[in-house]
Amino acid sequence: MLATLSARALKHHLCITIGVVFAVLLPLTGCATKTEAAPPPPPEVQVVPVEQKDVPIYGEWVATMDGYVNADIRPQVTGYLLKQNYREGMLVRKGDVLFEIDPRPFQAALEQAKGEQAQAEAQRGKTELDVQRDTPLAKQSAIPQAQLDNDIQANAAAAAVVTGSKAKVEEARLNVEFTKVRSLLNGIAGLAKGQIGDLVSPTTVLTTVSQVEPIKVYFSVSEQEYLPFAARISEVVTGKRALGTKKNLELILADGSVYPHKGSILVADRQVDAKTGTIRFAAAFDNPSGLLRPGQFARVRLPTSIAKDALLVPQRSVVETQGSYQVAVVTPENKASLRPVKVGERVGDMWIIQSGVAPAERVIVEGFQKVKEGAPVAPKPFQPSGQGK
Question: What is the helix (H) or strand (E) element at residue 10, kind and residue range?
Answer without folding.
Answer: helix 2-36
